[in-house]
Amino acid sequence: MGVRESNRHLVDDGVMMLRVLALSLTLFTGFVQATVLQRPITLETGTGELFGPLLLPKSDQPVPVVLIISGSGPTDRDGNNPDGGRNDSLKRLAWVLAKHNIASVRYDKRGVAASLAATPDERNLSVEAYVADAEAWGQKLKADPRFGQLILLGHSEGALIASLAAPSLDAAAVISMSGSARPIDQVLRQQLSNRLPPPLLLRSNELLDSLKAGHTDDNVPPQLQVIFRPSVQPYLISLFRQDPAAAFAKLKMPALIIQGSNDIQVGVGDAKLLQAAKPDAELALIEGMNHVMRIVPNDVKRQLASYKDPQLPLAAELGSRILGFIDGLRSS
Predict the structure, then answer these.
(1) Going by C-beta distance under 8 Å and a sequence separation of 6 or more, which residues neighbour residue 66?
(2) 33-179+246-331: which CATH architecture?
(3) Is the CB of residue 103 less than 8 Å from the CB of residue 142?
(4) What is the pLDDT of residues 228-270, one digit of tens each?
(5) pTM for the predicted model, two decimal places
């Protein structure tokens, strides 16, 4: 690399750091503010209605809109799960966006919370249905003159849904937060290998093998019901068919990968594999951030407590990196 090119990279890096610092300051000072309207919004899918809130900054011009897609299980519009507690992670993130003149829609997935009636029996859930719903939401938002660029933001399993839905929508960008790069059966196999006694581990691996092959198995020990109950197995079969890194590699639009170093559910290695699949994607590794977007030490008790504490502030760098990325889209 020549001296001139080296200097240019130093200048570019310096400008990026200044932008991140400036945006971080606005998160604390409230220097950038917008009048925000909060309205209910619905989507009729043909097989039931989905519900969520729209946060819309008051503006004379179309504003960017972020479709926020929540993670696995019965996780609702706000990032809360009855099995994991209330932390309001996605709700807080939506308000960070709104106060910086970026609209957002987040929604209860079919079969969850207010959208329960759209698919009341989890036997009928599938990744394909979730993707079709995200595509329908995206089409609705793209047809609305109040909105400009459409950005899909998925958290955890939602990152996979965002990657699969974005191409048909010709989205302006994709943001993957705490998204796995590996097929989820591999992730489960790794997680369970550290937590189960040998007899249960053997049975869990047999169940994973069966589901990966597309076959259900009703012989589930009580200790494994929470993961492998027969009613959720059809969904797991549809999920295990997916290759998140391959889906991410197909994206033609700009992408941002966000991963916390203290995430006990998804590791930094997955974020690096996603970037390897799409080398032009921007990678933001946030030191100390966990799966629910808070700065929390690598202590199991404190980690689990953060999943149930909506008062904990989001990691400041999370907001600044997302806002900087979207600001870059608007100026490009």
Answers:
(1) 94, 97, 102, 103, 104, 105, 151, 152, 153, 175, 326
(2) 3-Layer(aba) Sandwich (3.40)
(3) no
(4) 999 999 999 999 999 999 999 999 999 999 999 999 999 999 9
(5) 0.89
